[in-house]
Amino acid sequence: MKNMEVGLLILRVVTGIIFLAHGADKLMNGMSASAASFGSMGMPDGTAPTVAVIEAVGGVLLILGVLTRVVAGLFAIIMLGAIVTVKWQQGLVGGFELDLILMAASIHLVLAGSRMLALKKRKKKKVF
């Protein structure tokens, strides 16, 4: 069981770092460029800042182990949206492979959680 928790910790932290980096990149390199890019893909106004904040703040929360399942669920939705609206036509290799593995990692964290070194640990429920 300890090996599983170590694996989940690694998955949680690395996934958090990747999303934090992508969100920070969007926020620090000017939202106008990200908004224009999202707009050219037919995304509604306000999508770029929303995604950037979810990625940046969510990345930090995931690294810290706070609201892991909720944040991972949001990440999975964002990745599904990216695959369906933008990356699908590019194909797997050189297209949506990163988005797909990030979506899979996020779904795994939704299903399994990650309690090791988490600031907010979900209490185990007693069966009886």
TrEMBL record:
Membrane topology, as annotated, equals:
Multi-pass membrane protein
Q: Which family does it belong to?
A: Belongs to the DoxX family.
InterPro entries per the UniProt record, alphabetical: DoxX, DoxX-like_oxidoreductase
Query: Subcellular location, in the record's words?
Result: Cell membrane
Provide this UniProt record's keywords sorted from A to Z.
Cell membrane, Membrane, Transmembrane, Transmembrane helix
Spans traversing the lipid bilayer: 47-64, 71-88, 100-118
Cellular component GO terms, alphabetical: plasma membrane
Q: What is this protein called?
A: Putative oxidoreductase CatD
Q: Which residues form a coiled coil?
A: none
